[in-house]
Amino acid sequence: MDSDKKKRFSSEYNTLSILEYLYLNAQKIPVTKYNIVTNIQGIKQQRADRVNRMIDSLGKNGYITSVNTSSNITFYKITQKGIDAYEKWIKDFLDFAKSTDITYTTTRSTTTDNESLKKVSNDFNN
After folding, report:
1. By CB neighbour count within 10 A (0-12 exposed, 13-18 middle, 19+ buried), where does 60 fall?
2. Alpha carbon distance 39, 79 (integer Å)
3. Tens digit of pLDDT for each residue in 50-101?
4. Structure confidence at residue 41 as a pLDDT band (50, 70, 90)
5. Domain residues of the chain, as ranges?
6. Which of 4, 28, 82, 125 is deepest in the core (most CB within 10 A)?
């Protein structure tokens, strides 16, 4: 891959990144698409129509809800189904990491920017 090209992640990865962002930031207070796009690293390189499809897919499958305001701004919030799905994914990932003999310290140190992995990892190990 040419070093001048921006790295793009798969739509599956980005969809999970959106769910993770909402898990960390929108359980109680909804956020706008602008918040999602500007705060998730991999999303910045995606076309707007692709981001819209990812968000629409999460909504249609019940993982997030949207709230339209009178000022034509849509806010997004994770649902309980989305929380459950994300926590299951984290648990499955940690089970996978343990099965490959990756130590807890290695898993934790490689995810220092991901508070949810540390939280769930701590919960999982207790």
Report:
1. exposed
2. 20
3. 999 999 999 999 999 998 887 889 999 999 999 999 999 989 888 888 888 7
4. confident
5. 11-79, 81-125
6. 82
| 79 touches 65 (CB < 8 A) | yes
For CA atoms 112, 12, 62, 91, the dihedral sign is negative
Q: Is the dihedral of CA 93, 56, 50, 46 positive or negative?
A: negative
Residue 23 and residue 29 in contact, taking contact as beta carbons nearer than 8 Å: no
The SS3 call for residue 32 is strand
**DSSP, res 99:** H
**What pLDDT, on the 0 to 100 scale, is given for residue 54?**
93
Architecture label for domain 11-79: Orthogonal Bundle (1.10)
The Cα 50–Cα 43 span in angstroms is: 9
Q: Identify the pLDDT of residue 5.
A: 61
The per-residue b/e assignment along 23-41, b for 16 or more CB within 10 angstroms, e otherwise, is bebbeeebbebebbbeebe
User: Can you read off the two tokens belonging to residue 112?
Assistant: 């220092």
Packing angle, helices 11-25 and 115-125, rounded to 10 = 80
